[in-house]
Design brief:
single chain, about 210 residues, alpha/beta, Rossmann fold, seven-stranded mixed β-sheet, two-stranded antiparallel sheet, about 30% helix, binds S-adenosyl-L-homocysteine
């Protein structure tokens, strides 16, 4: 499937609507405008690729809503060449957006089918993150510390190991709550090692589940 003029036109409209909904960082909007979301959608929902909603993908998971992707990416405040850990590869869409922001991405997924699909899709598009099939609760100690950590599934609490793997001066964005809804938390690790938490609205994610699945 290619990226046609029609797709590009629909995408531009979606980006304009995200700006109207309050996304201010033009680097984030530009990055999202470069990623053909339709290439990450389940075939049954292709016509909705540029609708600002989450949609089902394989294994009962979802591709995040574009507004949520924009919001989390904006809150993360990445700087070029930083090392970013993404927990919950899912479709790979958010991974592509992070790569378009000019950072190095390590992405981890607990469901094998999604890990394989997202890897194939991103590689076919020329994207080169590090792909890991495993439990995001554990993070990736071999590559820590990370300047930024982005969790794209709803956690019951902040996983201790992720906090340990966050660099001093780093930022972690993680939705925390229960299966009915989560608060978006920004966690900043300050120079003296102190941790500052702030809340940034309510969202609804599929749950962050402990342990690797088949
Ligand atoms: N960023 C994705 C969002 C996918 S939904 C996208 O844009 O499509 C969240 C994903 O997190 C799901 O694929 C789910 O399987 C994964 N996930 C949940 N718990 C996890 C864990 N402990 N480790 C790694 N991935 C996890």
């Amino acid at each position: 499937m290619k990226d046609s003029y029609r797709h590009k036109g629909l995408r531009q409209k979606l980006i304009d609507s995200l700006r109207e909904k309050g996304i201010r960082d033009e680097n984030v909007l530009d990055a999202m405008n470069r990623v053909p979301r339709h290439l990450f959608m389940d075939s049954g929902f292709l016509n909705h690729s540029y609708t600002d909603k989450a949609f089902p993908i394989a294994s009962g998971q979802t591709i995040s809503q574009p507004y949520t992707v924009a919001f989390q990416t904006e809150l993360l405040e990445t700087e070029k060449h930083q090392k970013v850990l993404e927990v919950g590869t899912g479709s790979g869409y958010q991974t592509a957006v992070l790569l378009e922001m000019g950072v190095r991405v390590f992405t981890i997924e607990r469901i094998r089918e999604l890990y394989l699909q997202a890897r194939d899709q991103l590689q076919s598009m020329g994207y080169k993150p590090g792909f890991y099939y495993g439990d995001g609760y554990e993070g990736l100690p071999a590559f820590a510390p990370f300047d930024r950590i982005l969790v794209t599934a709803g956690a019951g609490k902040v996983p201790e190991k992720l906090l340990e793997q966050l660099a001093v001066g780093g930022r972690m964005v993680i939705p925390v709550g229960d299966r009915f809804g989560q608060k978006m938390l920004l966690i900043e690790k300050e120079k003296d090692g102190k941790v500052k938490k702030s809340e940034h609205g309510h969202f609804s994610f599929v749950p962050l589940v402990q342990g690797k699945s088949k």
